[in-house]
Known about the structure:
The protein is of the alpha+beta class.
Amino acid sequence: xxxLSLSNSRSKTTSSRLNRNxxxxxxxxxxxxxxxxxxxVSLDLRKITEASADFFIVCQASSTTQVKAxxxxxxxxxxxxxxxxxxxxxxxxxxxxxxxxxxxxxVHIMQPDARKFYQLEENWSDADSQMHxxxxxx
Length: 138
């Protein structure tokens, strides 16, 4: 059995840190909204030294089809607008949740039961959180 390592092999540098006005951040939020993702929350982890990313973006999807649609759209839009591809992505096979890792920002797309089970907002409650409602005009 493999051992679990809690060390962070990815390094974050001050120069690469982003904020909520960054192009990739805005592109991810818009991509989620385009596919009708709900309850979109961003968690600012920049002041938490143990965090492996600067931001988590968490949203909810109502079906396996929507999890895949949001995930695909995030990857497509980020590559199209920002010329970035994910460092890693996971979880699409079951459709209960998907994770897209852009190193400094990690996107979590979850169905309601998975979101309730993983409790990311509660586990990172010391992070500054912000809701991202649907944009009226596109």
